[in-house]
Amino acid sequence: MNMIAKWVVCLAFALFAVSAMATPVDTYEFKSADNQKRALSLSHQLRCPQCQNQNLVDSNSPVAQDLRLEVYKMVDNGKSEQEIIDFMTSRYGDFVLYNPKLDPKTYILWLGPFGLLIFGLFIGYIFVRKQRIQPTEAGSLSAEQQAELDALLNKNKAK
C-alpha cells in the first residue's frame, strides 16, 4: 500500500510540473479560412519588437501576443496586407519587418554585404599580386656566401 501511495504522489507531481510548464495558446475565431492564412502569413513576416529575433508567431512575449491579436483583428476587419504592414511600421519602425524595404535608409543593410565582399576580393587580389611580383631572395647568394657554402659542402664530403 505504501508503494502505491508513493507512485500516486510522484504521478501527481509530474502532472503538476507538466501543467505548470504549458504555455497558453492563442485562440481566435476567424471569419474565414482565407483570413486565417493571411493573418498567419503576416504574423510570420513581422518581427517581435521585444524578442528581436523571433517573429510574432514564435514569440511568447506579451507584446507579441498583443500584436498577433491586433493583426488577426485587422485581417478580419478587411484591412489589406499593405495597410497592416504600414500600421506596424508606423508604430514600431522598419525593425518589425524581417525583410525591410529597399530605400535610402536601408541601402547599407542591403548593399553592405556585397560591398564588403568586393572589398575583400580586391584586397585579396592585391595581396596575391604583390606576392607574385616580389622576387624571392632564397636563390640569390653573394659570391662570398657562395664560397662559404661550397667550403662547408666540401668539408662534409671529405669526412
TrEMBL record:
It comes from Shewanella algicola. The gene is nrfF. It holds the Pfam family CcmH. The keyword Lyase applies. Possible subunit of a heme lyase. Residues 1-22 form the signal peptide. Residues 12-153 form the CcmH/CycL/Ccl2/NrfF N-terminal domain. PANTHER family: CYTOCHROME C-TYPE BIOGENESIS PROTEIN CCMH, FORMATE-DEPENDENT NITRITE REDUCTASE COMPLEX SUBUNIT NRFF. This is Formate-dependent nitrite reductase complex subunit.
